[in-house]
Write a structure and sequence with these properties.
With about 375 residues, the chain is α/β, with parallel strands linked by helices. It is built from nine helices and 20 strands. Bound molecules: flavin-adenine dinucleotide and glycine.
């Protein structure tokens, strides 16, 4: 084993949107950063995602912590995107048309109404629409659509462009990115940040951030309360090719699927939510259900060519909110468990983590997301 690096900076394990964005923010403040990435940066969940920045449209009962974090992150998003795009010199296709949740019959209209009332209670700027109003905005939706809820603050990006732009920004700011470099052990040592073992080399950085998505709990050396409680939640998802940009302009959430039109002509339709470990098959059943769900709401998708089908693994935690912050071991931090919202929560994660590491800032919301919150007695 060679002693690769005793550097004063931060080493990040995992180069998805979470690792890249934290790294970029740290570099901007003058902190040296190295990312060790097992494959190629951003090619796991961060590329598999649909790129929706869902606030109202992904409200779930009893998940206020998650909602608060997304709202904080959305406040940062427009400036985050402008700064990132102008620094890296490329676009992430930030779109602000909003999302419409629709109902197709009486049953799901009642469900939509209940959720609408909850959204209003949470002071989200949503608007109830009749089926006709939905069709005026999106003429392609089925004639029998009963009602809709307009969510204007739900924006979107092209997450694959977000990945490539963050990667470019990270490198331009002077970061070191080691791809095809799997971390095989985090070696705990008393009173110091863990030593990192990767490809026969040992790294001894001043600070370590674990941001390995769904794999964060699997790296040897992380035992007991130090092992982040995350699991892979598989999502199968596909893209059709639209004939023109006005085929669908808003994101659409139907009772069965969501649909996100991208400016490159892809119509992304997702996604399954499955607890099947790291199985990477794209199944006939998932393809059938996703296409059927989209076709019920928008019959003209029947004619569209299929562009791509893929799947990814959402890092799910026990309460669906991320694990962010200190671990109790000097210089060892965790940023994982972003589940269905890692793209929307990228700016706030990068801000919270970089300011915690460099300034010791601990805002109340960050403390509530502490990685130790699931430890017994916590
Ligand atoms: P990842 O992108 O998975 O990155 C983790 C990285 O760590 C990987 O590149 C991996 O190779 C690396 N790694 C793992 N182990 C090691 C190791 N031992 N050594 C070195 N590197 C390692 N979120 C939204 O906000 N909006 C959406 O619309 C949305 N849609 C989604 C749709 C689907 C189908 C899926 C699967 C997810 C979706 N998400 C969405 C969730 C979002 O994609 C994730 O929350 C987010 O990408 C997590 O980012 P990450 O960087 O933590 O993980
Ligand atoms: N947020 C969309 C998904 O996880 O499928």
């Amino acid at each position: 084993m060679t002693d690769a690096s005793r550097h004063s900076g931060t080493l990040i394990v995992g180069g998805g949107v979470i690792g890249l964005s934290i790294g970029w923010r740290l570099l901007q403040r003058g902190e040296p950063v190295t990312i060790l990435e097992r494959g190629e940066a951003g090619q796991e969940a961060s590329s598999a995602a649909a790129g929706m920045l869902s606030i109202a449209n992904e409200v779930h009962y009893q998940e206020d912590l998650n909602l608060l974090l997304r709202m904080e992150s959305m406040r940062l998003y427009p400036d985050f995107v402008s700064e990132l795009e102008s620094f890296a010199g490329s676009s992430v296709d930030y779109r602000t048309e909003g999302a419409i949740a629709i109902s197709l019959h009486a049953d799901d209209t009642a469900e939509l109404k209940n959720l609408f009332e909850y959204q209003l209670e949470r002071k989200l700027p949503v608007r109830w629409m009749s089926g006709e109003e939905v069709r005026e905005l999106e003429p392609g939706v089925a004639g029998f659509v009963v009602a809709g809820v307009m969510c204007p603050m739900d924006h979107q990006v092209n997450n694959r462009l977000l990945v490539s732009t963050l990667r470019a920004a990270f490198l331009k700011a002077g970061g070191t990115l080691r791809e095809h470099c799997e971390v095989s052990e985090l070696r705990m040592e008393d009173g110091r940040p863990p030593a990192i073992v990767a490809q026969g080399e040992e790294w001894r950085p001043a600070r370590v951030v674990l941001a390995a998505g769904s794999w964060s709990g699997l790296i040897p050396g992380l035992d007991g309360w130090l092992r982040p409680l995350v699991r892979p939640v598989k999502g199968q998802i596909l893209a059709l090719r639209m004939p023109s940009p006005d085929f669908l302009v808003h994101m659409l959430k139907t009772p069965d699927v969501y649909m996100a039109p991208k400016s490159d002509g892809r119509l992304v339709i997702g996604a399954t939510v499955e607890e099947v470990g790291f199985n990477r098959d794209f199944t006939a059943g998932a393809g059938y259900e996703l296409l059927k769900g989209a076709w019920r709401a928008m019959p003209s998708v029947y004619e569209l060519p299929i562009d791509e089908m893929w799947c990814g693994f959402r890092p799910g935690s026990r309460d669906n909110a991320p694990l962010l912050g200190e671990t109790g071991v000097e210089g060892f931090y965790v940023a994982t468990g972003h589940y269905r919202n890692g793209i929307v929560n990228t700016p706030i994660t990068a801000k919270y983590m970089s300011e915690l590491i460099l300034d010791g800032n601990r805002p109340e919301l960050l403390l509530k997301l502490s990685p130790g919150r699931f430890a017994s007695g916590a």
